[in-house]
Write the structure tokens for this entry.
Amino acid sequence: MHPLIHITGLCKSYGAIQVLHGIDLSVKAGEVVVVIGPSGSGKSTLIRCINLLEEYQGGVVLVDGIAVQRGAGLAQVRAEVGMVFQSFNLFPHLTVQDNVALGPLRVKHLSKEVSHRTAQELLARVGMADHAHKFPAQLSGGQQQRVAIARALAMEPKVILFDEPTSALDPEMVGEVLDVMQALAKSGVTMVVVTHEMGFARRVADRVIFMDAGRIVEQASPEPFFNAPQEPRTQAFLKAIL
Ligand code: ADP
Ligand code: MG
């Protein structure tokens, strides 16, 4: 079976400045990969290339065997790759329920009844069933992020990419979002998570990847990664943050 995400030799520049230098990364179905590294190391750029939120200049990105590039397959790739951002990005003029139901209605062309029933189930899954008729502004940051996760799930993606999903939250709300993510991971959702939450990485990741200066420096399962990092740059980074 081919990996769900298969990236080889990915190179990306912004103008004249190259920020990804030949990334190779494969992610299997059901795997949880946590990406860590200093600010500016290319973590966001890497995951944004997986659904072509960023164009790239070199290498190959395949999702479920389909090339991620401009053209016919892109809509399908986008539907298969969910994304959860630091800044929630809910539609402010739509209720929680409508935020979650919108993708299935518009993109999957499901009936109003089916998409709203699915939205209810997903809101229950993230502990937000009682807030379905509120607007995003009436929710805390942690609640908004849980809705954003439900909205991503509504498209039944093959993988969900998370870009620092708890970095914009007040500290007391970080745990509720990480708990939801941990439950997703347990239920077999394939996830690539950029985060600074090392406890989450230790508990939930199948594999931890350390990036620096546009390259993957080191990767391992959490136990060896945190207890016996091999590369000096990884050691220095962990020493500074732990
Ligand atoms: P990280 O997520 O690890 O903090 P990023 O992927 O956001 O890193 O950024 C990698 C590099 O690319 C940084 O040097 C950053 O300044 C640069 N960069 C990111 N986005 C843009 C952009 N839209 N235009 C120009 N440079 C960018
Ligand atoms: Mg980033």
The chain is about 40% helix and 25% strand. The chain has a mean pLDDT of 96.
